[in-house]
Amino acid sequence: MKNNPVSDMTNLFLAGDSTVASCPKHEAPMAGWGQVFQSFFTDQVKVHNFAKGGASTNTFMEQGYLDTILHFIQPDDYLFIQFGHNDQKSFGTDPFTTYQSNLTKYVNGAREKGAIPVLVTSVQRRAFDEQGKIQSSLGDYPIAMIQLAEKLDVPLINLWEKTKTLYETLGPEGSKQLFTWFAPNENPNYPDGVQDNTHFCEHGAREVGKLVLEGIQELDLPIKSFIKQ
């Protein structure tokens, strides 16, 4: 039972980068999967999407977002943690040292509040080889997270693997429907056209959100009982 004097609602906090974040209207229909995630749950779950475009594990903490989440998170709430894309950048982290130590702070912070941390590996970028297979562009970050999840005994949703399967199933052409891909003059927000192999459109965000739900059910997390049928 929720130890919450205000309500018995379960809060689900999201920490992540632009592939999770809610995008501003002028970028529509670009969307992270966190933007559409509330729609999958009954009103007994409240999704709080703190994910930010450009965020890495370190900048998210430096800008105070983790502190804010940990201030509000309650026992039996959830913290889903998905970083990696921007940890690769010059301002980011090293996979097996600073990245893992930062993720550990998220995990321990949630656990100290009685909440449930869930690690989520980064989504793949849409990068096909000549055989129609996805080439990972994420370096050692997914493996580093998987190893840390085992070490800390944290539930893990492997979006790295799940999105690889999704993209390859749709193929090089069909997978474009998941992303922000428009010809010139096809969309008013992108008059010059756009070919973005990282950021989803709303359809893609929903399809990736379904993969996160699949992971919740595979892990048998209690929050699964609030997924809409």
Cα end-to-end separation: 23 Å
Element order, helices and strands?
EHEHHEHEHEHEEH
Taking all Cα atoms into account, the compactness measure Rg is 17 Å
Please work out how many helical segments DSSP would assign. 7
The CATH superfamily bears the name SGNH hydrolase
Number of strands: 7
- Indicate the CATH architecture: 3-Layer(aba) Sandwich
Q: Could you describe the largest sheet, including whether it forms a barrel?
A: 5 strands, parallel
**What is the beta-strand fraction?**
15-25%
Mean pLDDT: 96
> Would you identify the regions where 5 or more consecutive residues have pLDDT less than 50?
1-6
Q: If strands are numbered along the chain, what order do they take across the biggest sheet?
A: 2-1-3-4-5
Helix percent reads 25-40%
Q: Classify the fold: give the CATH topology.
A: Rossmann fold
CATH top level?
Alpha Beta
Class by helix and strand content?
alpha/beta
Number of domains: 1
Shape: globular
Characterization of this structure:
The strands form 2 sheets. The protein has a 5-stranded parallel beta sheet, sandwiched between helices. It starts with 9 loop residues before the first strand and ends in a 10-residue tail after the last helix. The protein contains 7 helices and 7 strands. 36% of the residues lie in helices and 15% in strands. The longest helix is centred in the middle third of the chain and has 18 residues, at 95-112. The protein has one domain (10-226): SGNH hydrolase (Rossmann fold), CATH 3.40.50. Strand 4 (116-120), helix 5 (141-152) and strand 5 (156-157) form a beta-alpha-beta unit. Helix 4 (95-112) packs across helix 5 (141-152).
